[in-house]
């Protein structure tokens, strides 16, 4: 099993490298440091969101409220600071509290009310967005406060020539890797994803774990949103209406994290992010029109899901579980 | 003190009596202007107007709605907003519901050239007058109030040719940032860009990408284009709220002096601030407050006109303002609170 799993990740990595080579030969300025940084930078947000999505998917769940959580929490923080005169510190704390609440509601509905994750989070996304548009902010583009040290630090500083955006992605990836690989929490996540019934029978705290995962994922979405706002000096809630949630799933599934849970890790997300980055960057350089870009992206997602279902077939023994069965 | 008060009271009484008798006299001479005022106000009272924007919550639609709401409250006709929140599908449902409700006038902000065209024809057939605002469909209805997008595009392209064309000593390389590829603004502007650039062969279009109104996407595209073409001379884009992302990418690359960014927008304070910050160089503004006033005038005209729906088709292309650093320094830009 392990050997096959490596193959999917390997295939994607090989594909990414192959495309890199083709682009490097065909497109004159592809392999410059500047372009490579721009490439990674443009998919860093996607990568960070992929880490959050990856966590719940490994535990055999899904979080479709990810984008709404990110957009609404950060827009609220920005609206409080720029329009209502709040200090950034308390506003950031309030925003964190808000996403924790979203995560808790998601987790409790999924774990204790046993509503499938896909429906819970789909509905929660709409609820969160609706609450945001209705009460938390008026205009759908919120700008970061002028001369804010916090946002300038996130958006403008560089470490070893790398923008903070990329650094944030790498740091979060490292933390997630440590958590999944070296903590009890991480091992439990894999156990739950692999076979929730067995995990419960051997005494793992499956329900609290589900709640915890969703809270962590919501916090990751919050972090992604703050970095995104810093990078583009504002947050547009229209992102919620875009195809971003599918792009996040693309990164996760493409990298080889099986939708049936229990498989994959941070490395898969990095590989998936890299392939999407190379693809997008190459298509922009080649000036491929928008419609074709979307078409190419969706075909690749479709192929990835097909490959996923062949390589990670549903486990007949566990597929009947109500829990997070998507 | 007391005598003073009495005198004041007597004076005001006398004054009141004088004006009252004056009013009586004017009534008799027809100076109450009943002939014009009565049909004007009575014709509007109790009428029903419905507005279907692309979405609420951004400068253009919030600005128009604020102005239209104020007049509706003043003149006593109802004004409702059906917000489809960027979903053409929800907009289609909203319009279908409107057809059943039969309001007197529907104001439609079209997401693209085709989607609502048939529904609008059906509305007209059902006797509902249709006013299209700023983004039109291919089929004209009772009224269109909004920018002449071809003209906006021509002005934008000409400005870019001036900066990057013959004799400018630049590479002549320009990038186009489209908005929503199927929207009226986008298609008409694109036609204009390519028409102008065809007459100026020294302009080379090195990228033509859609940022779909998203500043983050505009930023990512611009970053990549700048890597490929470090000698880029100009960027022409569809909307200021989107192209500010391109400005951020140019600024991050330290090329604000080299790359000239032309865009169009509603002329709000946010846009002006972005010009001041050096993120954008020229906004061809279609002036939302002015468009709001034109909309109000069109609403009154349509509600009071004896013409049937679809009988007369009028267009008003709202005037354009060129907002640059110099213009912003000496003019005020609007914000939503002023309009409310």
Keywords summarizing the entry:
heterodimer, A: 326 residues, mainly alpha, ABC transporter involved in vitamin B12 uptake, BtuC, two-stranded antiparallel sheet, 13 helices, 4 strands, globular, disordered N terminus, disordered C terminus, B: 340 residues, alpha/beta, Rossmann fold, 6-stranded parallel β-sheet, 6-stranded mixed β-sheet, 16% strand, transmembrane helix (chain A), ABC_transp_permease (chain A), cell inner membrane (chain A), transport (chain A)
Topology:
The complex is a heterodimer of chains A (326) and B (340).
Chain A (H helix, E strand, L loop, with lengths): L1 H25 L6 H26 L7 H17 L5 H24 L5 H20 L4 E3 L5 H8 L1 E2 L2 E2 H19 L1 H11 L1 H6 L4 H26 L2 E3 L7 H12 L10 H20 L4 H22 L15
Antiparallel strand pairs in A: 1-4, 2-3
Helix pairs in contact in A: 1-12, 2-7, 2-8, 2-10, 2-11, 2-12, 3-4, 3-5, 3-10, 4-5, 4-10, 6-10, 7-8, 7-10, 11-12, 11-13
Chain B lengths: L1 H27 L5 H11 L3 E5 L6 H17 L2 E4 L6 H14 L3 E4 L8 H9 L3 E5 L9 E4 L2 H16 L8 E6 L5 H16 L4 E7 L4 H14 L5 E4 L2 H13 L7 E6 L3 H8 L5 E4 L2 H17 L9 E4 L3 E3 L1 H6 L5 H4 L1
Parallel strand pairs in B: 1-2, 1-3, 3-4, 4-5, 5-11, 6-7, 6-8, 8-9, 9-10
Antiparallel strand pairs in B: 10-12
Helix pairs in contact in B: 3-11, 4-5, 6-7, 8-9
Short description:
The complex is a heterodimer of chains A (326) and B (340). Chain A is mainly α and 326 residues long. Chain A contains 13 helices and four strands.
Describe this structure in words.
The complex is a heterodimer of chains A (326) and B (340). Chain A is mainly alpha-helical. Chain A has one domain: ABC transporter involved in vitamin B12 uptake, BtuC (Orthogonal Bundle), CATH 1.10.3470. Chain A has 13 helices and four strands. Chain A has helices at 2-26, 33-58, 66-82, 88-111, 117-136, 149-156, 164-182, 184-194, 196-201, 206-231, 244-255, 266-285, 290-311; strands at residues 141-143, 158-159, 162-163, 234-236. In chain A, strand 2 (158-159) and strand 3 form a beta hairpin. The longest helix of chain A has 26 residues, at 33-58. Chain A is globular and about 60 Å long. In chain A, 52% of the residues are buried. Residues 1-6 and 322-326 of chain A have low confidence and may be disordered. Chain B starts with a helix and ends with a helix. Chain B is 51% helix and 16% strand. Chain B has a six-stranded parallel sheet with strand order 2-1-3-4-5-11, sandwiched between helices. Chain B folds into two domains: 39-147 and 288-319, Rossmann fold, CATH 3.40.50.2300; 149-285, Response regulator (Rossmann fold). Chain B is of the alpha/beta class and 340 residues long. Chain B has helices at 2-28, 34-44, 59-75, 88-101, 117-125, 149-164, 184-199, 215-228, 240-252, 269-276, 288-304, 325-330, 336-339, and strands at 48-52, 78-81, 105-108, 129-133, 143-146, 173-178, 204-210, 234-237, 260-265, 282-285, 314-317, 321-323. Chain B is built from 13 helices and twelve strands. In chain B, helix 3 links the parallel strand 1 and strand 2 (78-81). In chain B, helix 3 crosses helix 11. The chains are: A mainly alpha (326), B alpha/beta (340). Chain A binds chain B through residues 27-29, 32, 34-35, 38-39, 41-42, 45, 133, 138-141, 143, 156, 228, 231-234, 236-239, 241-242, 280-281, 284-285, 287, 289-291, and chain B through 55, 57-59, 62, 85-87, 178, 181, 206-210, 212-216, 219-221, 223-228, 241, 244-245, 248, 252, 270, 336.
């Amino acid at each position: 099993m392990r050997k096959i799993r490596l193959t999917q990740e390997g295939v994607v990595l090989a594909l990414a490298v192959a495309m890199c080579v083709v682009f490097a030969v065909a497109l004159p300025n592809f392999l410059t440091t500047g372009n490579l940084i721009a490439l990674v930078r443009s998919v860093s947000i996607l990568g960070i969101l992929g880490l959050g999505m990856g966590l719940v998917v490994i535990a055999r769940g899904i979080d479709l409220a990810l984008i709404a959580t990110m957009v609404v929490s950060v827009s609220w923080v920005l609206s409080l600071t720029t329009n209502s005169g709040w200090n950034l510190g308390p506003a950031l704390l309030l925003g964190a509290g808000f996403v924790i609440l979203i995560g808790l509601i998601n987790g409790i509905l999924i774990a204790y009310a046993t509503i499938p994750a896909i429906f819970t989070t789909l509905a929660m996304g709409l609820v969160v967005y609706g609450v945001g548009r209705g009460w938390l902010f008026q205009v759908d583009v919120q700008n970061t406060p002028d001369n804010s040290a916090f946002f300038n630090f996130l958006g403008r500083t560089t470490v070893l020539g790398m923008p903070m955006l990329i650094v944030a992605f790498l740091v979060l990836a490292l933390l997630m890797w440590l958590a999944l690989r070296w903590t009890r929490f991480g091992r439990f996540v894999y156990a739950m994803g692999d076979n929730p019934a067995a995990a419960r029978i051997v005494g793992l705290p499956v329900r609290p774990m589900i709640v915890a995962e969703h809270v962590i994922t919501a916090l990751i979405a919050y972090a992604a949103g703050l970095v995104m706002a810093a990078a583009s000096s504002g947050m547009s809630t229209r992102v919620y209406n875009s195809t971003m949630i599918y792009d996040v799933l693309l990164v996760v599934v493409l990298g080889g994290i099986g939708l049936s849970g229990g498989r994959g890790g941070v490395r898969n997300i990095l590989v998936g992010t890299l392939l999407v980055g190379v693809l997008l960057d190459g298509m922009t350089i080649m000036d491929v029109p928008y419609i074709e870009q979307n078409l190419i992206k969706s075909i690749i997602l479709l192929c990835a899901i097909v490959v996923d279902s062949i390589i990670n077939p549903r486990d007949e023994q566990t597929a009947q579980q109500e829990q997070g069965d998507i | 003190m007391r005598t003073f008060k009495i005198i004041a009271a007597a004076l005001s009484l006398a004054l009141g009596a004088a004006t009252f008798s004056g009013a009586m006299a004017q009534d008799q001479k027809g100076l109450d202007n009943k002939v014009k005022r009565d049909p004007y106000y009575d014709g509007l009272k109790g009428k029903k107007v419905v507005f279907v924007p692309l979405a609420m919550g951004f400068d253009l639609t919030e600005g128009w709605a604020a102005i239209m709401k104020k007049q509706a409250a003043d003149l006593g006709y109802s004004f409702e907003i059906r917000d489809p929140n960027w979903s053409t599908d929800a907009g289609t449902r909203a319009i279908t519901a409107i057809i059943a409700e039969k309001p007197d006038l529907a104001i439609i902000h079209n997401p693209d050239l085709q989607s609502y065209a048939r529904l609008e024809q059906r509305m007209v057939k059902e006797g509902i007058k249709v006013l299209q605002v700023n983004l039109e469909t291919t089929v004209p209805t009772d009224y269109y109030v909004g920018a002449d997008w071809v003209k906006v595009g021509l002005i934008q392209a000409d400005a870019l040719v001036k900066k990057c064309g013959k004799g400018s000593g630049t590479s002549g390389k320009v990038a186009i940032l489209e908005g929503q590829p199927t929207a009226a603004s986008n298609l008409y502007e694109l036609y204009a860009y390519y028409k102008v650039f065809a007459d100026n062969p020294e302009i080379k279009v090195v990228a033509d990408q859609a940022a779909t109104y998203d500043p983050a996407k505009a930023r990512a595209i611009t970053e990549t284009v700048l890597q490929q073409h470090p000698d880029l001379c100009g960027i022409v884009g569809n909307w200021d709220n989107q192209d500010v992302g391109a400005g951020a990418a140019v600024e991050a690359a330290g090329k604000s002096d080299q790359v000239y960014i032309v865009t169009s927008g509603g002329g709000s304070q946010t846009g002006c601030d972005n010009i001041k910050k050096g993120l954008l160089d020229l906004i061809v503004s279609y002036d939302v407050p002015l468009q709001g006033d034109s909309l109000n005038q069109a609403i009154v005209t349509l509600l009071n006109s004896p013409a049937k729906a679809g009988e007369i088709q009028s267009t008003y292309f709202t005037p354009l303002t060129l907002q640059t650093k110099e213009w912003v320094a000496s003019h005020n830009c609007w914000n939503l609170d002023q309009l409310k």
